[in-house]
């Protein structure tokens, strides 16, 4: 069966829409949220509760130990056989989450670009930015012309690709973009978009419910957490609250601010994914 993707910023209502779609399409839900993969982080990550999960089968929630490292590549290796197994039973996989790179790896596959080389990156890091820019212009003028040359990370990555492959980053990227367009034509997916004030109100409501609903005890119980797991919004803020470094009101506002910033980045990411159909709740 065709895979269906439900995407959108945090607190936009992805879980509810995925549940609705799964019931309509005889589907099963597969998580694509980086933090809902972790066990013991259910409240902080706003994972679907027992009542929701009882309505249709849910997969890949709480499957990683909090100490485990995870990235888009490890998620892809984990998710592909789960999706294939769902399809083998004639069911529709409903992929839902807000982690753009995880979704991109699953929908289109990883870009055919070399992974970073620590030794080369260390060499580039000590060179002046102007020197890196000059070399990029020499090796790949097309990529240099479309790179934000004031951004050292972007310049270093483009130059790194050229040096590692002996070719041009622009050619590899253009080839991947062409393949991506072909793949996109066969995909089915939706991105939830809400008015900014509505989304912010939902974020604030969820933060209050999280803090009132056991998030403090959840964070207090976690030990030996991986650096990736620590990035979950709310984790560090609640740790600071538990340590007496901030009060409840400050904790709540910091979580709200961080969540709003994250939602803005997510909206920017999904806006670039033009294969996703726009879904506006309540007809808005």
Description of the molecule:
This protein is an alpha/beta fold and 284 residues long. It has 2 domains: 4-110 and 193-283, Rossmann fold (3-Layer(aba) Sandwich), CATH 3.40.50; 118-175, Histone, subunit A. The chain contains 14 helices and 6 strands. Helix 6 (129-139) packs across helix 8 (152-165) and helix 11 (215-221) packs across helix 13. The radius of gyration is 21 Å and the shape is globular. The two termini are 30 Å apart.
Provide the fold topology:
Elements (H helix, E strand, L loop, with lengths): L3 E4 L6 H11 L2 E5 L18 H6 L2 E2 L12 H17 L3 E5 L3 H9 L9 H8 L3 H11 L1 H5 L6 H14 L3 H16 L3 E5 L3 H17 L2 H7 L5 H4 L4 H8 L5 H25 L4 E3 L5
Parallel strand pairs: 1-4, 1-5, 2-3, 2-4, 5-6
Major beta sheet, strand line-up: 3-2-4-1-5-6
| CATH domain class name of the largest domain | Alpha Beta
Class computed from helices, strands and strand pairing: alpha/beta
Largest sheet: 6 strands, parallel
Low-confidence stretches: none
CATH domain fold name of the largest domain? Rossmann fold
Give the CATH H-level superfamily of the largest domain.
P-loop containing nucleotide triphosphate hydrolases
For the record, the count of structural domains works out to: 2
Strand-and-helix sequence, N→C? EHEHEHEHHHHHHEHHHHHE
Helicity, as a percent range: 55-70%
Overall outline: globular
Rg for CA atoms? 21 Å
SS field, number of helical segments: 14
**How many individual β-strands?**
6
- Rounded mean pLDDT score: 94
**Any guess at the CATH architecture of the largest domain?**
3-Layer(aba) Sandwich
Calculate the terminal CA-CA distance, rounded to whole Å: 30 Å
Which percent range describes the beta-strand content? 5-15%
Task: Tell me which oligomeric state these chains represent.
Answer: single chain
């Amino acid at each position: 069966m065709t895979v269906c993707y439900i995407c959108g910023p945090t607190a936009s209502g992805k879980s509810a829409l995925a549940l609705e779609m799964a019931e309509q399409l005889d589907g099963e839900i597969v998580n694509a949220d980086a933090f809902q993969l972790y066990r013991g982080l259910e409240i902080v990550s706003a994972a679907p509760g027992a009542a929701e999960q009882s309505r249709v089968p849910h997969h890949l929630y709480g499957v990683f130990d909090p100490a485990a490292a995870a990235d888009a590549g490890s998620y892809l290796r984990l998710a592909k056989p789960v999706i294939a197994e769902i399809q083998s039973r004639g069911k529709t996989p409903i992929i839902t989450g807000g982690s753009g790179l995880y979704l991109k790896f699953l929908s289109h596959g990883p870009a055919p670009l070399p992974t970073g080389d620590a030794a080369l990156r260390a060499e580039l890091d000590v060179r002046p930015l102007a020197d890196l820019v000059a070399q990029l212009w020499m090796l790949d003028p097309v990529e240099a012309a479309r790179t934000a040359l004031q951004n050292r990370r972007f310049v270093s990555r483009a130059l790194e690709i050229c040096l590692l492959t002996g070719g041009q980053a622009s050619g590899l990227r253009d080839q991947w973009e062409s393949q991506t367009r072909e793949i996109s034509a066969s995909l089915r997916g939706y991105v939830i978009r809400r008015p900014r004030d509505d989304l912010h109100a939902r974020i604030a409501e969820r933060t209050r419910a999280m803090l009132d609903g056991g998030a403090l005890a959840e964070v207090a119980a976690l030990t030996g957490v991986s650096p990736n797991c620590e990035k979950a919004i709310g984790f560090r803020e609640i740790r600071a609250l538990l340590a007496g470094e901030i009060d409840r009101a400050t904790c709540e506002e910091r979580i709200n601010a961080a969540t709003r910033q994250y939602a803005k980045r997510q909206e920017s990411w999904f806006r670039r994914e033009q294969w996703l159909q726009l879904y506006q709740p309540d007809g808005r």
